[in-house]
Amino acid sequence: MTSTAGGASDRVRPLRADAERTVRAILEAAERVLSANPAATMEQIAEAAGVARTTVHRRFATREALIVAMTGWATRQFQDAVNAARPEATPPAVALYQVTANVLRVKIAWGFAMNALRTDDPEVAHVHTDVLDRCDRLFRRARETGLLRPDVDLDWTRRAYYALIHEAAQDDRGEDADVLATRIVDTLLHGFGTPDGRSGR
Asked: Using one digit for the tens of pLDDT, what is the confidence trace for 58-96?
C-alpha cells in the first residue's frame, strides 16, 4: 500500500509542473500577442501559445481574467527583480545599477501587463508601496555615502529616476537592459551638463 501511494504521489507532481508550464506559456503568449494587438482574441492567444482555445478558457474564464493573471504575474516579477538586487545589502552604486537593469527587463518583457496594472488591486498596491519604500532607503544610503549630493531632494530625484526608467522601457531601438540601465544611472548621477556648468565657448 505504501508503495502504491508513493507511486500515485509521484505521478501527480509532473501534472502540476505541466499545468504551471502551460499557464506560463499562455501568459507569455498573451503578452506578445496583446503587445502587438491589444484587441487580439483568446483564440489568437491560444494559437500563439501552441494550445487549444479550450485550454486557455479552462485556465482563464474570460479575457479580463487572463489580463488580471498577467498583471499579477508581472507584479511578482517586478518585486522579484528588486529583491534580486539586494538593495539593502549591496553598495548603493552597485544596487542602483542592478535594480535598474532588473526592473527594465521586467518592464520590457511584460510591457502590456505592466501598463495594465490597476492601482486599486491590493497586490499591486502592496508591491508598489514596498518598492517605493526600498527605493527611498536606497537613495538615502546613496546620499549618505556621497553618491548623491548632500543637498539633493530625494523625492524629486526618485521621481526623475522613475521617469527615466519609464522612458527607457519605451525605447524601440532594441538596446538591451544593461545598456539602458547604464545610460539611466549615468544620466541620474551626471546629467548632460559640463562639470563646471560652462558652455565651453
From this structure: 999 999 999 999 999 999 999 999 999 999 999 999 999
Distance from chain centroid for Cα 114? 7
Which of left, alpha, beta for 175 (phi over 0: left; psi -120 to 50: alpha)?
Answer: beta
Longest dimension (CA), the chain: 89
pTM value surpassing 0.85 = no
One-letter amino acid identity for 86? R
Give me the sign of the Cα torsion angle 180, 185, 189, 195. negative
Query: How far is Cα 163 from Cα 188, in angstroms, rounded to an integer?
Result: 11
Nearest Cα to 81, choosing from 44, 125, 135?
135
Dihedral of the alpha carbons of 108, 116, 124, 65, in degrees to the nearest 10: -120
Task: Spell out the domains of the chain, with CATH numbers in brackets.
Answer: 1-61 (1.10.10), 62-201 (1.10.357.10)
C-alpha cell of 192?
A: 548632460
**pLDDT digit string (tens) for 112-148?**
999 998 878 888 899 999 999 999 999 999 999 999 9
